[in-house]
UniProtKB/TrEMBL annotation:
Record-level Gene Ontology MF annotations: N-acyltransferase activity
Source organism phylogeny: Bacteria, Pseudomonadati, Bacteroidota, Flavobacteriia, Flavobacteriales
GO cellular component: membrane
Entry annotated with the keyword Lipid metabolism: yes
Keywords linked to the UniProt accession: Acyltransferase, Lipid A biosynthesis, Lipid biosynthesis, Lipid metabolism, Repeat, Transferase
A GO biological-process term: lipid A biosynthetic process
Cross-referenced InterPro entries: Hexapep (IPR001451), LpxD (IPR007691), Trimer_LpxA-like_sf (IPR011004), UDP_GlcNAc_AcTrfase_non-rep (IPR020573)
Species: Lutibacter profundi
Name of the molecule in the record: UDP-3-O-(3-hydroxymyristoyl)glucosamine N-acyltransferase
Length: 307
């Protein structure tokens, strides 16, 4: 999430009531999660397990809950609760804007695009040309839809990320400040849900097709010309490369990569990253031939034991 303009380290520290280490005029241009952070950004870390990863990341500013040695060329923001401070930044730079109409006046809708009854289109949404948006679709603020896109009835684009921190009193939500990008020639089936990024953009690239009832988690990137069948659930921060096929009821762990041209057979649990160009099956996931051979061998072993 980039700020509308650059801010000084001192300005940000005052905004979130934090101490800072580094020049007061150190420039800050945005805030992002660790997997998408860039130079000029703030990244937050609140667990010793991830201190080194955050300090060595591309981030220029590390929002941390312990005073540590500041890496050369970077700056620190020190606060008791970085999670809450990160939420403060999201609320300040990307506040929630209530809507008072079904289609926002700030939405941009391209030529020959058809919007059916009972569709909600939020603030600053952009929809390209020759699209069809079917009844009861909801498109949240700041989402971008390309040309020749079809979104079937009841689908929801841009809902919040499923991201919580466990506290003594319950679960504390990390506020979503990202958006969704759907590129050209994408089809979205009925009752699909595509969550926006926490601080970046959930992306579905050109030519990809989603069946009905597919869930795509926050900050996930789906490549070009992929097929995703019904009742598949893709977790947050997943990378699915081009030409991947996920058959029905596939589920994935977060933070994994599925390589180009991979085929994942139905009801598989993608528990780890897998290479492209191969077919996979089962939970835990394995190459399908190997998995099916194991199943046959186990059945034969059981049969022999019964003799």
């Amino acid at each position: 999430m980039k700020f509308p303009r650059g801010h000084s380290l001192k300005e940000i520290a005052q905004l979130i009531d934090a101490k800072f280490v580094g020049p007061s005029d150190f420039p800050v241009f945005g805030c992002n999660e660790i997997h998408v952070v860039e130079e000029g950004d703030i990244v937050f870390v609140d667990h010793p397990k991830y201190y080194d990863k955050a300090l060595q990341s591309k981030a220029s500013v590390i929002l941390i809950n312990k005073k540590v040695k500041c890496p050369q060329g970077k700056a620190l923001l020190i606060a008791k609760d970085p999670f809450t401070c990160f939420n403060k930044l999201t609320k300040h730079f990307n506040p929630f804007e209530p809507s008072n109409s079904s289609i926002s006046k700030t939405a941009i809708i391209g030529k020959n695009t058809i919007v059916q009854p009972n569709v909600f289109i939020g603030n600053n949404v952009e929809i390209g040309e020759n699209c069809v948006i079917h009844p009861n679709v909801t498109i949240y603020d700041n989402c971008i839809i390309g040309n020749n896109v079809t979104i079937h009835a009841g689908s929801i684009i841009g809902a919040d990320a499923f991201y919580y921190k466990k506290r003594q009193a319950g679960y504390d939500k990390l506020i979503s400040g990202g958006s969704v990008l759907i590129e050209d020639n994408v089809d979205i089936g009925a009752l699909c849900t595509i969550d926006r990024g926490v601080s970046a953009i959930t992306t579905i690239k050109k030519g990809t097709k989603l069946d009905n009832q597919v869930q795509i988690g926050h900050d996930t990137i789906i490549g070009e010309k992929c097929l995703i069948a019904s009742q598949t659930g893709v977790a947050g921060c997943v990378i699915i490369e081009d030409d991947v096929i996920l058959w029905g009821q596939v589920g994935t762990n977060s933070g994994i990569t599925i390589g180009k041209g991979a085929i994942v057979l139905g009801q598989t649990g993608v528990t780890k990253s897998v290479k492209g160009g191969k077919t996979y099956f089962g939970t835990p996931i394995e190459e399908s031939r190997k998995k099916l051979k194991e199943i046959i061998e186990i059945k034969q072993l059981i049969k022999n034991q019964k003799k």
